[in-house]
Design brief:
By secondary structure, this protein is an all-alpha fold. It has one domain: Ferritin, CATH 1.20.1260. Helix content is 78%, strand content 0%. It is built from seven helices and no strands. α6 packs antiparallel against α7. The longest helix has 30 residues. The chain is globular and about 45 Å long. Keywords: Signal. This is DUF4142 domain-containing protein. It comes from Stenotrophomonas lacuserhaii.
Length: 192
Amino acid sequence: MSFIVPLRATVVALGLIGSSAASAQTSAAPSPSSSAASTANAPSGELRQQQALGVLSAINQAEINAGQLALSRAQTEPARQYAQAMVRSHTENEKMLAAWKPDRSSAPAQAKTAEAKAEAAALAKHQGAAFDSAYLQAMVKDHRKALQTLDDSLLPAAADAEVRAFLQKTRGHVADHLAQAERLAGTPATGR
């Protein structure tokens, strides 16, 4: 019980630090020891949290893979820069997520992985300017869906405050990625 007050203070401090550097996404990875402690004493809801984190991991990997494909095929500098930013941002998020040991083998994570593979195969059929357009439209669709997944499934599954804070910060980054993709694709903003 005595570690709860310092943990709350840490979460608040990280939130303040993270909000000032949200676009840089440079905060340190979460403490595996606090995650391990919450897992050891967690009720059955903890598995749900691990599954939710597995879905986020699958989303990260999908964005990394799509970004790498775009880096090899994109024709325009804005599309290449966006792809590079997605690879960097989602790789960093994935590294921070690893401390909570996401359940990547869960059915929801596997379904997201299969969906991403199908989308990548469809995207790979495009060449030239058509690829850039298809990639940016896919990023709009994917980031809209990621926001909805965060709001409807992942955030409600967060069993501890540190995970919830991480997911809230991640949500902010995903919203920024969506706004960038909408601007580049010429798609009307959703206001999410």
